[in-house]
Automatic annotation (TrEMBL):
PANTHER family xrefs: THO COMPLEX SUBUNIT 3, THO COMPLEX SUBUNIT 3 THO3
Name this polypeptide is given: THO complex subunit 3
Organism expressing this protein natively: Sciurus vulgaris (Eurasian red squirrel)
Gene name tied to this protein: THOC3
Family indicated by similarity: Belongs to the THOC3 family.
InterPro entries: Tex1/THOC3, WD40/YVTN_repeat-like_dom_sf, WD40_PAC1, WD40_repeat_dom_sf, WD40_rpt
Length: 328
């Protein structure tokens, strides 16, 4: 097991471009009514459950845009889709066809019936849950490890182990553009306005390109260690990054300034998720817990302790999942 990377204070974080680093963590004088209400709600829904999902390690999970389905991708070369029924998940279908591990998947931003998978078999596949079939297979040049769907639903971006990002037309299933990067590309994402494309890299930076021109706009020194993951909040006000330094940084989308850091994790931050209203941010690492914080203050909402993370072939499901639709 690797030795955990020590968390570093704000003085270790640098930034190029406009603005300066905000204080280490902006915390209000006391919990707000919202925080107190949500803490009470979490206390009443604090159980976790494990659902058998795959025969090997789970690599990726994602909620559909309407919050009704959860999809998972696994080292066993399959994807699974679960239907949310009250406080439990019911397995709907298993999706086979890839010849290698399914490393990442995502749903269409507005169509709750479509999702796409990225695999080490040098293909991506688009699936329709209504027919339970693959409706398109697109060949790519390398072993794919990350994927995202543009907010307008028109383009799919997929990155491979050789740090090549390919942009694929979601209707014609043909490549529109391809970019080779000279740095390690970890995770990719459009902003909510669909006019910028963000990449996190192995040098601790966030690289921003204009879209669709794909011209460099800015490079931000976000973390002193490998910048692993990135997530935009649904309201379009913030985005968050997670790093090997065990820190989560919250950034103002318009100013590109870090406004807050979250430092309760001890291991590299692997994944992030905002609640549907953008008020809460969940972060997870190799620690056996999930940290849920109020975005505006950094106040702790809840820590969910887990008996295991993704080393076993199961899904760990929180009784109250904060990443789903507003209807919950």
């Amino acid at each position: 097991m690797a030795v955990p990377t020590a968390a570093m204070g704000p003085s270790a974080l640098g930034q190029s471009g406009p603005g300066t680093m905000a204080p280490w963590c902006s915390v209000s004088s006391g919990p707000s009514r919202y925080v107190l209400g949500m803490q009470e709600l979490f206390r009443g829904h604090s159980k976790t459950r494990e659902f058998p999902a795959h025969s090997a390690k789970v690599h990726s999970v994602a909620w559909s845009c309407d919050g009704r389905r959860l999809a998972s991708g696994s080292f066993d070369k399959t994807a699974s889709v679960f239907l949310l029924e009250k406080d439990r998940l019911v397995k709907e279908n298993n999706y086979r066809g890839h010849g290698d591990s399914v490393d990442q998947l995502c749903w269409h931003p507005s169509n709750p019936d479509l999702f796409v998978t990225a695999s080490g078999d040098k293909t991506i596949r688009i699936w329709d849950v209504r027919t339970t079939k693959c409706i398109a297979t697109v060949n790519t040049k390398g072993e794919n490890i990350n994927i995202c769907w543009s907010p307008d639903g028109q383009t799919i971006a997929v990155g491979n182990k050789d740090d090549v990002v390919t942009f694929i037309d979601a209707k014609t299933h043909r490549s529109k553009a391809e970019e080779q990067f000279k740095f390690e590309v970890n995770e990719i994402s459009w902003n909510n306005d669909n006019n910028m494309f963000f990449l996190t890299n192995g040098n601790g930076c966030i690289n921003i390109l204009s879209y669709p021109e794909l011209k460099p706009v800015q490079s931000i020194n976000a973390h002193p260690s490998n910048c692993i993951c990135i997530k935009f909040d649904p309201m379009g006000k913030y985005f968050a990054t997670g790093s090997a330094d065990a820190l989560v940084s919250l950034w103002d989308v318009d100013e590109l300034v870090c406004v807050r850091c979250f430092s309760r994790l001890d291991w590299p931050v692997r994944t992030l998720s905002f609640s549907h209203d953008g008020k809460m941010l969940a972060s997870a690492s190799e620690d056996h817990f999930i940290d849920i914080a109020e975005v505006e203050t950094g106040n702790l909402m809840r820590i969910f302790c887990l008996s295991s993370l993704d080393m076993r072939p199961s899904l760990v499901f929180l009784a109250l999942h904060i990443t789903s639709s507003p209807g919950l």
